[in-house]
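REQUEST ID: PR-0412
SUBMITTED BY: lab tech R.K.
PRIORITY: routine
TASK: structure prediction, single protein chain
INPUT:
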Amino acid sequence: MSNDKILLPIFSRAKTQFQEKQIDQEFSSICNKQINQSHSPQITKTLKTNNEIKNLLDQGNLQLSFKLAKKQYESKKSNRNSSNKTFIESQITYADILFQLSDFKASLGLLLDSIDCIQKNLEELEQEYSKALDMTGKVYLKLGYLKKAEEYFLKSLNFKKGLFDQAKSFYLLSVLYEELGQYNQAMTNCEKSLKLYTSINLHQSLLYAECLDSKANLLRSLGKLEESLAFFREALEMKTKILGKINHPQIISTQENIAMVLNDLGKFQESYSLMQEVLKMRESLYTTDICPNSHPQIADAYQNIGTVQQDLGMLKKSLINQKKALSLRQSIYQQDRQIQSQNFLQKIFSSVNNQLSKLQFSESTTDILNQISTQNHPDIASSYASLGIVYRNIGHYEEAQDYLQKALKQRELAYGQEHTKYAITLNYLA
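STATUS: complete
OUTPUT:
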Protein backbone atom coordinates (compact mmCIF):
# COMPACT_ATOMS: atom_id res chain seq x y z
CA MET A 1 0.00 0.00 0.00
CA SER A 2 1.36 3.46 -0.90
CA ASN A 3 2.06 6.19 1.69
CA ASP A 4 -0.67 8.33 0.09
CA LYS A 5 -3.35 5.67 0.70
CA ILE A 6 -2.25 5.09 4.28
CA LEU A 7 -2.07 8.77 5.18
CA LEU A 8 -5.23 10.02 3.49
CA PRO A 9 -7.89 8.60 5.84
CA ILE A 10 -5.79 9.19 8.94
CA PHE A 11 -4.72 12.81 8.54
CA SER A 12 -8.11 13.97 7.27
CA ARG A 13 -9.35 13.65 10.86
CA ALA A 14 -6.58 15.76 12.45
CA LYS A 15 -8.02 18.80 14.23
CA THR A 16 -6.79 18.97 17.81
CA GLN A 17 -3.50 18.25 19.57
CA PHE A 18 -5.05 15.23 21.25
CA GLN A 19 -6.21 13.89 17.91
CA GLU A 20 -2.73 14.51 16.45
CA LYS A 21 -1.24 12.22 19.12
CA GLN A 22 -3.88 9.59 18.44
CA ILE A 23 -3.10 9.84 14.72
CA ASP A 24 0.63 9.36 15.35
CA GLN A 25 -0.14 6.21 17.32
CA GLU A 26 -2.57 4.95 14.68
CA PHE A 27 -0.10 5.64 11.86
CA SER A 28 2.71 3.86 13.75
CA SER A 29 0.38 0.93 14.43
CA ILE A 30 -0.54 0.65 10.74
CA CYS A 31 3.10 0.92 9.65
CA ASN A 32 4.25 -1.67 12.19
CA LYS A 33 1.46 -4.04 11.18
CA GLN A 34 2.43 -3.73 7.51
CA ILE A 35 6.11 -4.11 8.40
CA ASN A 36 5.43 -7.33 10.35
CA GLN A 37 3.34 -8.78 7.55
CA SER A 38 5.61 -7.99 4.61
CA HIS A 39 9.22 -8.15 5.83
CA SER A 40 11.73 -10.53 7.33
CA PRO A 41 12.40 -10.28 11.11
CA GLN A 42 15.66 -8.38 10.55
CA ILE A 43 14.07 -5.77 8.27
CA THR A 44 11.11 -5.50 10.65
CA LYS A 45 13.47 -4.76 13.55
CA THR A 46 15.36 -2.13 11.54
CA LEU A 47 12.20 -0.33 10.42
CA LYS A 48 10.80 -0.32 13.96
CA THR A 49 14.06 1.13 15.27
CA ASN A 50 13.89 3.81 12.56
CA ASN A 51 10.36 4.63 13.77
CA GLU A 52 11.73 4.96 17.31
CA ILE A 53 14.46 7.31 16.09
CA LYS A 54 11.90 9.38 14.18
CA ASN A 55 9.74 9.67 17.30
CA LEU A 56 12.75 10.83 19.33
CA LEU A 57 13.55 13.44 16.68
CA ASP A 58 9.92 14.61 16.73
CA GLN A 59 10.36 15.13 20.47
CA GLY A 60 13.54 17.17 19.86
CA ASN A 61 15.67 14.51 21.60
CA LEU A 62 18.84 14.62 19.51
CA GLN A 63 21.02 12.88 22.07
CA LEU A 64 18.99 9.68 22.31
CA SER A 65 18.23 9.58 18.59
CA PHE A 66 21.97 9.87 17.85
CA LYS A 67 22.88 7.07 20.27
CA LEU A 68 20.16 4.78 18.94
CA ALA A 69 21.02 5.46 15.28
CA LYS A 70 24.73 4.92 15.93
CA LYS A 71 24.10 1.67 17.79
CA GLN A 72 21.85 0.34 15.02
CA TYR A 73 24.30 1.35 12.29
CA GLU A 74 27.27 -0.28 13.99
CA SER A 75 25.38 -3.54 14.60
CA LYS A 76 24.29 -3.74 10.94
CA LYS A 77 27.74 -2.74 9.67
CA SER A 78 29.41 -5.62 11.52
CA ASN A 79 27.02 -8.18 9.97
CA ARG A 80 26.17 -6.61 6.63
CA ASN A 81 25.90 -9.86 4.67
CA SER A 82 22.68 -10.72 6.52
CA SER A 83 20.58 -8.14 4.69
CA ASN A 84 21.57 -5.39 2.32
CA LYS A 85 18.27 -3.57 2.88
CA THR A 86 18.63 -3.38 6.66
CA PHE A 87 22.16 -2.01 6.34
CA ILE A 88 21.09 0.65 3.82
CA GLU A 89 18.16 1.66 6.06
CA SER A 90 20.42 2.05 9.10
CA GLN A 91 23.11 3.87 7.11
CA ILE A 92 20.67 6.45 5.70
CA THR A 93 19.12 6.97 9.14
CA TYR A 94 22.55 7.50 10.69
CA ALA A 95 23.48 9.92 7.90
CA ASP A 96 20.29 11.89 8.63
CA ILE A 97 21.21 12.22 12.32
CA LEU A 98 24.78 13.29 11.49
CA PHE A 99 23.33 15.89 9.11
CA GLN A 100 21.16 17.30 11.89
CA LEU A 101 24.20 17.42 14.17
CA SER A 102 26.09 19.38 11.46
CA ASP A 103 28.67 16.71 10.57
CA PHE A 104 27.87 17.30 6.92
CA LYS A 105 30.84 15.69 5.24
CA ALA A 106 30.49 12.45 7.20
CA SER A 107 26.80 12.42 6.35
CA LEU A 108 27.57 12.95 2.66
CA GLY A 109 30.02 10.05 2.58
CA LEU A 110 27.46 7.65 4.04
CA LEU A 111 24.76 8.85 1.63
CA LEU A 112 26.92 8.58 -1.50
CA ASP A 113 27.90 5.08 -0.45
CA SER A 114 24.22 4.21 0.10
CA ILE A 115 23.30 5.45 -3.39
CA ASP A 116 26.07 3.32 -4.93
CA CYS A 117 24.75 0.24 -3.13
CA ILE A 118 21.09 0.96 -3.92
CA GLN A 119 21.74 1.32 -7.65
CA LYS A 120 22.86 -2.31 -7.72
CA ASN A 121 19.45 -3.39 -6.43
CA LEU A 122 17.16 -0.50 -7.37
CA GLU A 123 13.93 -2.48 -7.83
CA GLU A 124 13.85 -3.55 -4.18
CA LEU A 125 15.17 -0.26 -2.77
CA GLU A 126 13.15 2.43 -4.55
CA GLN A 127 12.00 4.13 -1.35
CA GLU A 128 15.53 4.16 0.08
CA TYR A 129 16.88 5.58 -3.21
CA SER A 130 14.45 8.48 -3.16
CA LYS A 131 15.26 9.28 0.48
CA ALA A 132 19.02 9.09 -0.12
CA LEU A 133 18.75 11.47 -3.11
CA ASP A 134 16.77 13.98 -1.05
CA MET A 135 19.21 13.77 1.84
CA THR A 136 22.25 14.13 -0.43
CA GLY A 137 20.73 17.25 -1.97
CA LYS A 138 20.13 18.69 1.51
CA VAL A 139 23.75 18.04 2.52
CA TYR A 140 25.09 19.68 -0.64
CA LEU A 141 22.82 22.66 0.05
CA LYS A 142 24.22 23.04 3.58
CA LEU A 143 27.78 22.70 2.26
CA GLY A 144 27.11 25.55 -0.19
CA TYR A 145 27.21 23.39 -3.32
CA LEU A 146 23.95 24.73 -4.72
CA LYS A 147 24.08 23.33 -8.24
CA LYS A 148 24.88 19.86 -6.92
CA ALA A 149 21.92 20.18 -4.55
CA GLU A 150 19.67 21.07 -7.49
CA GLU A 151 20.96 18.05 -9.44
CA TYR A 152 20.00 15.64 -6.66
CA PHE A 153 16.64 17.27 -5.88
CA LEU A 154 15.60 17.15 -9.54
CA LYS A 155 16.81 13.55 -9.90
CA SER A 156 14.71 12.63 -6.87
CA LEU A 157 11.63 14.46 -8.18
CA ASN A 158 11.87 12.74 -11.56
CA PHE A 159 12.12 9.37 -9.83
CA LYS A 160 9.12 9.85 -7.52
CA LYS A 161 5.60 8.66 -8.31
CA GLY A 162 3.41 9.39 -5.25
CA LEU A 163 1.94 12.82 -4.47
CA PHE A 164 3.33 12.74 -0.92
CA ASP A 165 6.92 12.28 -2.11
CA GLN A 166 6.52 14.83 -4.91
CA ALA A 167 5.29 17.42 -2.39
CA LYS A 168 8.50 16.94 -0.37
CA SER A 169 10.60 17.44 -3.50
CA PHE A 170 8.84 20.67 -4.45
CA TYR A 171 9.43 21.97 -0.91
CA LEU A 172 13.15 21.19 -1.08
CA LEU A 173 13.41 22.89 -4.47
CA SER A 174 11.68 25.99 -3.08
CA VAL A 175 14.30 26.23 -0.31
CA LEU A 176 17.11 25.81 -2.84
CA TYR A 177 15.80 28.40 -5.31
CA GLU A 178 15.34 30.89 -2.49
CA GLU A 179 19.01 30.47 -1.58
CA LEU A 180 19.90 30.98 -5.26
CA GLY A 181 17.87 34.20 -5.28
CA GLN A 182 15.41 32.80 -7.84
CA TYR A 183 12.36 33.91 -5.87
CA ASN A 184 9.66 33.37 -8.50
CA GLN A 185 10.82 29.82 -9.13
CA ALA A 186 11.03 29.23 -5.39
CA MET A 187 7.47 30.49 -4.85
CA THR A 188 6.14 28.32 -7.70
CA ASN A 189 7.63 25.19 -6.12
CA CYS A 190 6.45 26.19 -2.65
CA GLU A 191 2.86 26.65 -3.88
CA LYS A 192 3.01 23.27 -5.67
CA SER A 193 4.07 21.62 -2.43
CA LEU A 194 1.33 23.29 -0.39
CA LYS A 195 -1.28 22.33 -2.99
CA LEU A 196 -0.20 18.68 -3.04
CA TYR A 197 -0.18 18.39 0.75
CA THR A 198 -3.67 19.90 0.83
CA SER A 199 -4.87 17.45 -1.84
CA ILE A 200 -3.91 14.49 0.39
CA ASN A 201 -5.30 16.13 3.54
CA LEU A 202 -1.92 16.97 5.10
CA HIS A 203 -2.72 20.64 5.57
CA GLN A 204 -2.42 20.28 9.37
CA SER A 205 0.95 18.51 9.41
CA LEU A 206 4.55 19.44 10.20
CA LEU A 207 5.40 19.06 6.53
CA TYR A 208 2.78 21.64 5.61
CA ALA A 209 4.05 23.96 8.38
CA GLU A 210 7.58 23.71 6.93
CA CYS A 211 6.18 24.85 3.58
CA LEU A 212 4.49 27.80 5.29
CA ASP A 213 7.91 28.71 6.75
CA SER A 214 9.38 28.57 3.25
CA LYS A 215 6.64 30.80 1.85
CA ALA A 216 7.09 33.26 4.72
CA ASN A 217 10.85 33.41 4.10
CA LEU A 218 10.23 34.15 0.43
CA LEU A 219 7.77 36.93 1.28
CA ARG A 220 10.37 38.43 3.64
CA SER A 221 12.98 38.34 0.86
CA LEU A 222 10.49 40.12 -1.39
CA GLY A 223 9.90 42.82 1.25
CA LYS A 224 6.31 41.75 2.07
CA LEU A 225 6.91 41.80 5.81
CA GLU A 226 3.38 41.81 7.22
CA GLU A 227 2.39 38.85 5.01
CA SER A 228 5.60 37.08 5.98
CA LEU A 229 4.91 37.54 9.69
CA ALA A 230 1.36 36.20 9.30
CA PHE A 231 2.58 33.00 7.62
CA PHE A 232 5.36 32.47 10.19
CA ARG A 233 2.82 32.80 13.01
CA GLU A 234 0.48 30.36 11.29
CA ALA A 235 3.37 27.89 10.96
CA LEU A 236 4.35 28.33 14.62
CA GLU A 237 0.78 27.77 15.79
CA MET A 238 0.55 24.58 13.72
CA LYS A 239 3.91 23.25 14.95
CA THR A 240 3.09 24.00 18.60
CA LYS A 241 -0.28 22.30 18.24
CA ILE A 242 1.38 19.14 16.90
CA LEU A 243 4.61 19.05 18.94
CA GLY A 244 3.55 20.85 22.10
CA LYS A 245 5.55 23.65 23.71
CA ILE A 246 8.88 21.84 23.70
CA ASN A 247 12.46 22.75 22.86
CA HIS A 248 12.21 21.43 19.30
CA PRO A 249 14.37 22.56 16.32
CA GLN A 250 11.30 23.21 14.16
CA ILE A 251 9.64 25.46 16.73
CA ILE A 252 12.86 27.33 17.53
CA SER A 253 13.54 27.96 13.83
CA THR A 254 10.15 29.58 13.29
CA GLN A 255 10.52 31.69 16.45
CA GLU A 256 13.86 32.95 15.16
CA ASN A 257 12.31 33.85 11.81
CA ILE A 258 9.52 35.74 13.58
CA ALA A 259 12.13 37.65 15.61
CA MET A 260 13.96 38.77 12.48
CA VAL A 261 10.79 39.90 10.70
CA LEU A 262 9.88 41.91 13.81
CA ASN A 263 13.32 43.49 13.58
CA ASP A 264 12.72 44.33 9.90
CA LEU A 265 9.44 45.99 10.96
CA GLY A 266 11.30 48.18 13.46
CA LYS A 267 10.09 46.32 16.57
CA PHE A 268 13.64 46.01 17.84
CA GLN A 269 13.06 45.36 21.56
CA GLU A 270 10.46 42.65 20.93
CA SER A 271 12.81 41.05 18.42
CA TYR A 272 15.76 41.25 20.82
CA SER A 273 13.89 39.53 23.67
CA LEU A 274 12.77 36.70 21.40
CA MET A 275 16.25 36.22 19.91
CA GLN A 276 17.76 35.90 23.39
CA GLU A 277 15.28 33.10 24.12
CA VAL A 278 16.13 31.44 20.80
CA LEU A 279 19.86 31.42 21.58
CA LYS A 280 19.29 29.84 25.01
CA MET A 281 17.09 27.13 23.49
CA ARG A 282 19.57 26.42 20.72
CA GLU A 283 22.51 26.09 23.11
CA SER A 284 20.55 23.72 25.37
CA LEU A 285 19.57 21.60 22.34
CA TYR A 286 22.94 21.36 20.54
CA THR A 287 25.22 20.62 23.49
CA THR A 288 28.97 20.10 23.12
CA ASP A 289 28.78 16.36 23.84
CA ILE A 290 26.86 15.79 20.58
CA CYS A 291 28.07 18.88 18.66
CA PRO A 292 31.71 19.40 19.75
CA ASN A 293 32.29 22.07 17.07
CA SER A 294 28.98 23.78 17.86
CA HIS A 295 26.11 23.92 15.35
CA PRO A 296 25.25 26.21 12.40
CA GLN A 297 21.98 27.25 14.04
CA ILE A 298 23.81 28.49 17.13
CA ALA A 299 26.03 30.58 14.85
CA ASP A 300 22.90 31.88 13.10
CA ALA A 301 21.45 32.93 16.45
CA TYR A 302 24.61 34.86 17.42
CA GLN A 303 24.62 36.66 14.07
CA ASN A 304 20.95 37.53 14.31
CA ILE A 305 21.31 38.82 17.87
CA GLY A 306 24.21 40.94 16.64
CA THR A 307 22.04 42.32 13.83
CA VAL A 308 19.28 43.32 16.27
CA GLN A 309 21.82 44.83 18.69
CA GLN A 310 23.21 46.93 15.84
CA ASP A 311 19.74 48.28 15.09
CA LEU A 312 19.33 49.07 18.80
CA GLY A 313 22.60 51.04 18.73
CA MET A 314 24.46 48.44 20.84
CA LEU A 315 27.42 48.40 18.45
CA LYS A 316 30.10 46.98 20.75
CA LYS A 317 27.87 44.08 21.80
CA SER A 318 26.89 43.56 18.19
CA LEU A 319 30.54 43.33 17.16
CA ILE A 320 31.23 40.71 19.87
CA ASN A 321 28.33 38.51 18.73
CA GLN A 322 29.16 38.86 15.04
CA LYS A 323 32.73 37.76 15.76
CA LYS A 324 31.38 34.85 17.80
CA ALA A 325 29.20 33.79 14.84
CA LEU A 326 32.17 33.95 12.46
CA SER A 327 34.37 31.94 14.84
CA LEU A 328 31.72 29.22 15.19
CA ARG A 329 31.18 29.03 11.43
CA GLN A 330 34.88 28.70 10.78
CA SER A 331 35.03 25.90 13.34
CA ILE A 332 32.06 24.14 11.74
CA TYR A 333 32.88 24.53 8.06
CA GLN A 334 36.60 24.99 7.65
CA GLN A 335 39.62 22.70 7.76
CA ASP A 336 39.42 21.20 11.26
CA ARG A 337 35.87 20.02 10.64
CA GLN A 338 36.80 18.48 7.31
CA ILE A 339 39.65 16.51 8.92
CA GLN A 340 37.33 15.33 11.70
CA SER A 341 34.83 14.05 9.13
CA GLN A 342 37.51 12.31 7.07
CA ASN A 343 38.83 10.56 10.17
CA PHE A 344 35.30 9.53 11.07
CA LEU A 345 34.76 7.99 7.65
CA GLN A 346 38.07 6.15 7.72
CA LYS A 347 37.21 4.73 11.15
CA ILE A 348 33.73 3.48 10.30
CA PHE A 349 34.87 1.73 7.13
CA SER A 350 38.20 0.35 8.38
CA SER A 351 36.62 -2.38 10.53
CA VAL A 352 34.73 -3.98 7.61
CA ASN A 353 36.24 -7.05 5.94
CA ASN A 354 38.01 -6.62 2.59
CA GLN A 355 35.24 -8.17 0.54
CA LEU A 356 32.72 -5.58 1.70
CA SER A 357 34.98 -2.55 1.86
CA LYS A 358 34.73 -1.98 -1.89
CA LEU A 359 30.96 -1.78 -1.61
CA GLN A 360 31.00 0.38 1.48
CA PHE A 361 33.41 3.08 0.43
CA SER A 362 33.90 3.29 -3.31
CA GLU A 363 36.73 5.11 -5.03
CA SER A 364 34.26 7.57 -6.57
CA THR A 365 32.92 8.48 -3.11
CA THR A 366 36.46 9.01 -1.84
CA ASP A 367 37.26 11.28 -4.79
CA ILE A 368 34.11 13.36 -4.26
CA LEU A 369 34.79 13.84 -0.54
CA ASN A 370 38.39 14.84 -1.22
CA GLN A 371 37.15 17.56 -3.58
CA ILE A 372 34.64 19.01 -1.10
CA SER A 373 35.83 22.33 0.31
CA THR A 374 33.87 24.64 2.58
CA GLN A 375 36.52 27.33 2.89
CA ASN A 376 34.25 29.73 0.98
CA HIS A 377 30.95 28.70 2.56
CA PRO A 378 28.03 31.17 2.10
CA ASP A 379 27.48 31.33 5.89
CA ILE A 380 31.05 32.54 6.39
CA ALA A 381 30.48 35.16 3.68
CA SER A 382 27.37 36.24 5.61
CA SER A 383 29.46 36.72 8.76
CA TYR A 384 32.06 38.74 6.82
CA ALA A 385 29.30 41.00 5.46
CA SER A 386 27.72 41.49 8.90
CA LEU A 387 31.06 42.35 10.48
CA GLY A 388 31.80 44.78 7.65
CA ILE A 389 28.53 46.60 8.25
CA VAL A 390 29.12 46.84 12.03
CA TYR A 391 32.69 48.15 11.53
CA ARG A 392 31.35 50.69 9.04
CA ASN A 393 28.76 51.93 11.54
CA ILE A 394 31.42 52.20 14.26
CA GLY A 395 33.58 54.25 11.88
CA HIS A 396 36.36 51.68 11.41
CA TYR A 397 36.34 51.95 7.63
CA GLU A 398 39.49 49.95 6.84
CA GLU A 399 38.22 46.90 8.74
CA ALA A 400 34.81 47.37 7.14
CA GLN A 401 36.31 47.45 3.66
CA ASP A 402 38.38 44.33 4.35
CA TYR A 403 35.43 42.23 5.57
CA LEU A 404 33.08 43.46 2.85
CA GLN A 405 35.64 42.61 0.15
CA LYS A 406 35.95 39.10 1.58
CA ALA A 407 32.17 38.75 1.60
CA LEU A 408 31.89 40.01 -1.98
CA LYS A 409 34.51 37.56 -3.25
CA GLN A 410 32.90 34.56 -1.52
CA ARG A 411 29.39 35.52 -2.60
CA GLU A 412 30.54 35.81 -6.19
CA LEU A 413 31.96 32.28 -5.96
CA ALA A 414 28.83 30.91 -4.29
CA TYR A 415 26.08 32.74 -6.19
CA GLY A 416 27.49 34.71 -9.11
CA GLN A 417 27.23 38.45 -9.76
CA GLU A 418 23.50 38.40 -10.53
CA HIS A 419 22.46 37.37 -7.00
CA THR A 420 20.77 39.84 -4.63
CA LYS A 421 23.30 39.16 -1.86
CA TYR A 422 26.18 40.03 -4.17
CA ALA A 423 24.45 43.28 -5.18
CA ILE A 424 23.78 44.25 -1.54
CA THR A 425 27.42 43.67 -0.58
CA LEU A 426 28.61 45.64 -3.58
CA ASN A 427 26.34 48.52 -2.58
CA TYR A 428 27.93 48.70 0.89
CA LEU A 429 31.35 48.98 -0.76
CA ALA A 430 30.25 51.89 -2.95
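NOTES: The chain has three domains: 32-159+334-375, 246-329, 378-430.
REVIEWED BY: pending
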